[in-house]
Amino acid sequence: MFFITAFAVLMLLFSLIMLFRPHAFAQGIISFSEQPYFHPFEVSSRLIAGGIFVAYAADSQFPLLFKAIGLVLLVVGLGLALTPPRLHKKFAVQSAQICKNYFHWIGMFSVVLSLALIYAATAQWH
């Protein structure tokens, strides 16, 4: 559950950036998409996170939800693996440009989701 908690804390940090600096967050996505390791990182991070969510789902407060999140991450990771890197980059840039005015609202939702994940992953520790 340590890895799921770490994932949720990292998600919380990105969510706070989205919430308080939405345009900087959008620019960060665009800048990150320029890096040569962008596509492999995006694919591998989703596959690893998805595998961890599925593997540890039974140990969480909400096993079905954690398994579903893991399966979604795995499917997205596999989909990205089959996507040419140039199309993935184009999608990331377009999404950041389109969503930059909505990242504040997405960040609010994402903060709540991050905190819920942290709770669900750590509740059995109490």
Structural commentary:
The protein is mainly α and 126 residues long. It is 83% helix and 0% strand. It has helices spanning 2-20, 22-33, 38-56, 63-81, 85-99, 103-122. Helix 1 (2-20) crosses helix 2 (22-33) and helix 3 packs antiparallel against helix 4 (63-81). The radius of gyration is 15 Å and the shape is globular. The protein starts with a helix and ends with a helix. The model has no long low-confidence stretch (mean pLDDT 95).
* Overall morphology: globular
Give the strand content: under 5%
Distance between the termini: 13 Å
Number of strands: 0
The ordered string of helix (H) and strand (E) elements is HHHHHH
Bin the helical content: over 70%
Whole-angstrom Rg: 15 Å
Poorly predicted regions are: none
Structural class: mainly alpha
* Structure annotation, total helices: 6
What would the average pLDDT be, to the nearest integer? 95
Biggest sheet descriptor:
none
Quaternary class: single chain
